[in-house]
Each structure stands twice: as structure tokens, then as C-alpha cells.
Automatic annotation (TrEMBL):
Residues in Molybdopterin dinucleotide-binding domain copies: 654-736
CDD domains tied to this protein: MopB_CT_ydeP, MopB_ydeP
Domain of life: Bacteria
Enzyme class: oxidoreductase
This protein's record includes keyword Cytoplasm: no
Enzyme Commission no: 1.17.1.9
Family per record: Belongs to the prokaryotic molybdopterin-containing oxidoreductase family.
PANTHER family to which the protein is assigned, alphabetical: PROTEIN YDEP (PTHR43105:SF4), RESPIRATORY NITRATE REDUCTASE (PTHR43105)
Keywords: 4Fe-4S, Iron, Iron-sulfur, Metal-binding, Molybdenum, Oxidoreductase
Domain Molybdopterin oxidoreductase, first and last residues per copy: 114-493
Protein name: Formate dehydrogenase major subunit
Organism: Paenochrobactrum gallinarii
Record bears the keyword 4Fe-4S: yes
Amino acid sequence: MSKCNGKTDFIGKASKAAGGWGALKSSGKQILQSGAALTNVRTMLKANQPNGFDCPGCAWGDPEHGSSFEFCENGVKAVAWEATGRRTTPKFFATHTVSELRGWTDYDLEHTGRLTHPMRYNTQTDQYEAIDWDEAFAEIGATLAALDSAHRAEFYTSGRASNEAAFLYQLFVRAYGTNNFPDCSNMCHEASGVALKQSIGVGKGTVLLEDFEKADAIFVVGQNPGTNHPRMLADLRRAAERGAHIVVLNPVRERGLERFADPQNKLEMITGGSEAIASDYLQPRLGGDLAAFRGMSKAVFAVDDAALARGEKSVLDHAFLSKHTVEFAAYRAAVEATSWEAIEDQSGLMRAQLENAAQIYLRSRNVITTWAMGITQHRHSVITIREITNFMMLRGHIGREGAGLCPVRGHSNVQGDRTVGINEKPSQAFLDALEREFDFEVPRVEGHNVLGAIGAMLDGSAKVFIGLGGNFARATPDSPVIAKALSGLDLTVHVATKLNHSHLLPGKKSYILPCLGRTEIDMNSKGVAQIVTVEDSMSMVHGSGGINQPASKLLRSEIAIVAGIANATLGAKPVNWLELADDYDLIRDHIERVLPDFYDFNKRVRVPRGFHLRNSAAEREWKTPSGKATFWTGAMPEAVEHQQARGVAGHSVLQTFRSHDQYNTTIYGMDDRYRGVYGERQVVFVNPADMAEIGVEAGDRADIIGQFDDGIERVAENFRFVPYDIPRGCVAGYYPEMNVLVPLVSFGDESYTPTSKSVIVTFRKKTKLAA
Ligand SMILES: Nc1nc2c(c(=O)[nH]1)N[C@H]1C(S)=C(S)[C@@H](COP(=O)(O)OP(=O)(O)OC[C@H]3O[C@@H](n4cnc5c(=O)[nH]c(N)nc54)[C@H](O)[C@@H]3O)O[C@H]1N2
Ligand SMILES: Nc1nc2c(c(=O)[nH]1)N[C@H]1C(S)=C(S)[C@@H](COP(=O)(O)OP(=O)(O)OC[C@H]3O[C@@H](n4cnc5c(=O)[nH]c(N)nc54)[C@H](O)[C@@H]3O)O[C@H]1N2
Ligand SMILES: [Mo]
């Protein structure tokens, strides 16, 4: 069981740079703890190599050149986590009831190790018991076939699934008859997809990794790459060394962004030196980014006006604006109509700071803006991303070398899963292509996203949940409501590598189907090792083949499991599922015929580094209704959450973010080294002045109470205050422990993404004794 030693320093004391020896020491510990040291070192060396596997850690791109492997502490953790020597066997399940396991922490559950056998829940004993694969498939297939409507089943995907697994899965689900594809990206970068599609006609980023070598300024917004995309830091560091400006917008001072020692650079590690990364670190209030970007645009327009008044050239890229965009004049008017007072108040930044950032933008020939969850998990995320795009368009920073938009994706293949059809609102063109290739009538009605699926479970219309990976119960908001929703179903099926809380909320019938991980050899019936493919944040598609022996002889690939369920439900229609599962080249042939951008797929995927999927916006072709890149011309919201909270005594806005020792709901350890927190996760980061106002000191504890106006009481119990460099009125704590506070009914406009970064809360102080 995890222990809590409660040792925490104020961030000021944790002064060493991110990365460096700390990173090596921490990952060494990880390898030793995982109990498979030798394999792990070999495994680590093969990550993101042409003849190795794609690192399951994150979706950052891989360099063409550089050291033999890109060292990444959190990549090592992800790999060690999968290649652990521990096993969760039928014997384990025989000694613990499901009710008992529900009392365990996320950390303890996953630390029981890799699942080894397909398991079926026994309602009599409240235990999982081993079952044959064929029996499991037959029972699942029979329940699915017996449903009166395919729309009563929900098919969840987590973003680790390969292109091949995801393509086969969507084919099965559509042949079965529904577009119900709740997907982890609904909780993640959905707003980026929606906004970019509206602005530039394609819901993906426009840059390549190489562009980072040519950028003069990189705006890193709402993102903590030191923890979540560590390999990105190396690219930022190289850029900083060249003299590029790194401008950070983040309410929290994240150490990885301030200074970084590169574990690949031996000299620097020996001398203990470190490179300053951010040249400018702006700390907006939570949800203040739309206002911040509007302020920067306003400053740019002011400089432009002054230049024109002096008879000088405009500082804007008018060639780009007139040839490639619409609505520019209306945007300029909207910005002019927005006052500096409103901008300062909503952003929490001062005019001078924003003018300074605008100067950096104006001095730079090539600008890249990157962002992640700090931007996408708010009510106003879609218009915020549209405003970021507006700002970038002023000087034509889209669709040319060294410049562009870069939403940095989370899961290693979340972008690819969307590309190959995991989408509750698929385009008609995609459905037409499926119909041509497979000759069946595809369902045309829109399916459920995550919130839609939860709604259907709660109102009783959904009967089945099938999860291709992930941890639906812990990743979603309002945890107790979700627990009830899942356990009320007729059938729940989880394809997984490790035990998690979602598996412990069985419906009437419930199965855990254990699968191979990325790092493991996937042998077909002819003894040929198969490879899968993934797509990174820069739209590079590349192959991935495991090198470790499977954790158990009984494991099957995700593809084989999907094929098994499909075959048991539909028979060999519209394809011979089992044949495809025995030769992934055949699946890729189908993908190529449905999605022509994958031409020569089987050939190109065997080239080191793979290939780039065409991005129309990066070529300045705009697939919007007007045929041009489109400015968003709306007004800023009246008041975002921090402004609403400010009016009421004791109210703050909470964001839920990741520690340095976790991968989403997978908790690797109890430390958050860069933030100076050790041995516990029940903490809340608060500005020292706010703490004084609440009347608490470092180490005091409180219950955190959600303040959402729907009559539901939401409480996160017994969290410890940690003074932190974060704006007043804004507080932070860890996901998934804080998910009990995120209301299901609070989501982004147009994105339906839970507002995990802006929840209004109050504190109920504990007496010292209770601590
Ligand atoms: N090691 C590791 N790697 C991961 C993951 C992991 O859990 N562990 N998860 C993967 C996944 S699925 C994803 S989506 C990504 C997530 O990558 P990130 O988006 O970096 O993840 P978070 O920890 O949620 O961090 C959000 C950051 O945004 C800041 N922020 C919060 N609200 C605001 C705001 O209103 N404005 C601004 N400007 N900033 C704000 C926070 O202070 C924090 O630094 O990482 C991926 N990679
Ligand atoms: N409050 C709050 N909530 C959030 C977020 C937040 O920032 N704050 N972030 C959101 C985001 S960005 C995301 S992406 C979601 C993540 O939501 P999910 O993707 O659903 O969650 P994960 O924690 O990544 O899933 C972990 C589980 O995946 C399984 N697994 C691991 N590897 C494999 C594999 O190779 N194959 C299969 N089949 N299974 C595997 C293991 O059983 C493990 O327990 O959470 C969202 N929820
Ligand atoms: Mo994510």
C-alpha cells in the first residue's frame, strides 16, 4: 500500500533544473521497481527507433537525426510500467472480491501487474474468474446480437489503440449498426479539432518537428511539457540555444519550462548547468487565454496603426490576409471594441506584459504556438483556440516553414484513431468510402460522444459498454455518478493491460480481456511478427513492433480481440475478421482504399520514420465553407470562472492537472518532483496570500467543496494545502483524485469536453486533529 510521508517544500526550494540527473535517477528507480531490469534497458533503447516500438508515453514527434535514442524519463516510466515482472493472475482474483478491490487506490490496483487471463465476473461470488477466449467471445457476441438496437451499445476508445486496431473496431461497430464512439479525445483535444476545422478547415496541427528548428518564437500555452511531453523540451531547448524566444503562458510556474538540463547532454549534466528555456513567463488566470491573445492582437494593431501613421509599411502580412483569409476587418473591429480594462481583468495580465509579448511576436519572422489541456478543458476553449489562430494569421504564420499551429496531443495514437474513423460524427465522405469498400449499409445517424454515452447510461437507454483500453470510470467527471451508470448496464467489456477501477464496476455480465502492449512481440499463426502503425502530433505515421516476450501466453492483440468479438457477433461479414487479424497488411490495404492519403501504406510504413499525412492547411488550402482561413469575430465572454468566483467570498477556481509521476489515471508513484511534492497526492496548490485569507498554513487540511449550481453536493475530502506560485483565486490539484469535483453538466461550448481546468470550489477547513 502506498504510504504518505507528507514531506513537501515550497516550490522556491526545489531549485534544480528539470531533467538532468534527477530524471536519470528517477527512471533508474522505475526500472528497478518494475522487477524486469535487463529487459527494460533493452526495451528502453528500442523506443521510437525505426526497428522498435512507438513509445506509449506521448504523441510528440520523433527526430530524423539526433542521438541513438531520445532519452525521456516519462517514456521510460511508461515502458517500465508495461514491461513489469508483476502479474495479476486468476489466483489474485480468487483472493480478492471486486467489492474489496474497489477500496484500493488507482496506484495499488495497477501495481498488481499485467493481466494474464481473460476473466468473467461471477455475481454470486463477487469475483472475476478465468474463462476461455472463445467462450468469452461467444457470450459477448450473443448479448450484442440480442440487443434490440445497436444504438444501445457504447464503444469507447482510449488513444493508445493502433490505427489497425481502431480501424477494425470502427468497421465492426458500424457494421453492427451504430456511430456510438465515445473517445478519450472528447475529454482531451476535442476543442482543438472543432476550432481548427472552423478556422483553417482541418482539425489538426500544421507544423512538422523540423519547423521547431526554424522558429524564432515559440508560444507554449497551457501545457506542461517537462512532465507530459518531455521530448518536446529538448526541441525547445535547442530553439532557446539558437536564440529563439520561448514565451510561456501558464498560471502555474512549471519548473520544466523555466530551466531544463538535457539528459542527452553529458557535459551539462556533469557541470550541473542548465539552460533557461522561457524568455518570458506570463501567468494568466485560469481561462484567461482568450483575453491574453486578444490583448496581444490589440497591441499588434496599435503598432501597426503607429507605423502607418508614420508613413511606414504595415507590420501585418496583407498578402496573406487578402489572399487567404476572410473576416479580417470584422476581427480588427472586434479587437478594437475590446477595452484594455476588460482584457487585463479577464486575462489577469497587465497590458505592458501583453505588449511585450506582442513585440516578441512582431520581431520574429517565424512563430509557432503550441497548446494542450490548459487551453482545451474550459467552457470557452473553442473560441480561445480560434483567437489563437486569429493572432497567428495576422502575420501569416500558418502554412510556411518554421511557423504554425501545434496542438500537442496526449495519447500516443489519439490523433491516428480519429483519422481512421473513431468519430461519433464521421464525415459523409468517410462513410461513403466505407460503404464502397465493404459493401454494407453504414449507419448515418450521429452517435454518442463521452457525455452522450453517459447520458444514455443514466437514462437507461444504453445497455452495453465496451472499452478498447482506457479507464472510463476514472477519466470522466462526477466519479460517483459514473460508477452508478456503468454498474447498471447489462454488459461491460474491458480490453486492457492492467486492472483499473472501470473493471470493478461490473454490469450484469462483465469481462476483462487482457491484451498485448506496444512493447510486446505480436506473432501471427505463421510465426511472422506483425507491426502496427500510429500517427504523432505532427501527422507522421510510422510503424511499431514489439520486442519483449508477451507478459502471458494467453494475451491477444487488440486487433485479434476486436476480430474475435466481431466474428462472434456478425460472423464473417462484411469481412473475414479472423483472416485480417492474422495479417495486418490486409487491414492496411483496406485503410488505404478508404483513405487515399495512406497510399502505398504497406510500403511507406516500413521506411524509417514512416511518412507524413497530407495536411491541407499546411499547404494553404482551406477546406472551410468559404474556401479561406476564417477569422473568428466574436466578443470575449462576459465573465470567465475566475471573474465569477471573485464576487463571492471564499470561492476559487480549481484546475485538475497531472503530477510528474502519473500517466492519466495510471499512477506510477506518489511524488511530483518538479513541484516539490513527495509521498502524497491529496494536495491542493494555493497562492500564499489566498491561504492567509482562508486562514490556513502550509500542511493544514481541508475538504474541497464543488460550487456548481445544480443541487448536487461534490466533496473531495481531506486535502493538504501547498503554498504555490499560482495567481490569486486560482488553485490546482491532481486528476483523477479531483474528478469528484468536476460536474458532468459543465462542459465546453461546441466541444462537450468536461471543464476539468475551471471548477469553482470552496474550502471547509479541518481541525488540526483531523489531519
Ligand atoms: N508523463 C505523462 N505524459 C503524458 C500524460 C500523463 O498523464 N503523464 N498524459 C498524456 C495526455 S492524454 C495528454 S492530453 C497530455 C496532457 O498534457 P498537459 O496539457 O501538459 O497536461 P496537464 O497536466 O493537464 O497540464 C496542463 C497545464 O496547463 C496549465 N493550465 C491549466 N489551466 C490553464 C489556463 O487556463 N491557461 C493556461 N495558459 N494554462 C493553464 C497547467 O498549469 C498545466 O501546466 O499529456 C500526455 N502525456
Ligand atoms: N479531471 C480531469 N479529467 C481528465 C483529464 C484532466 O486533465 N482532468 N484529462 C482527460 C484526458 S486529456 C484524457 S486523454 C482522458 C484519459 O482517459 P483514458 O484514456 O480512458 O485513461 P488512461 O488513464 O489513459 O487509461 C489507462 C488504462 O489503459 C489501459 N491500457 C494501457 N495500455 C493499454 C494498451 O496498450 N491497450 C489497452 N487496451 N489498454 C491499455 C490500462 O488498463 C490502464 O489502466 O482523461 C481525461 N480526464
Ligand atoms: Mo489526453
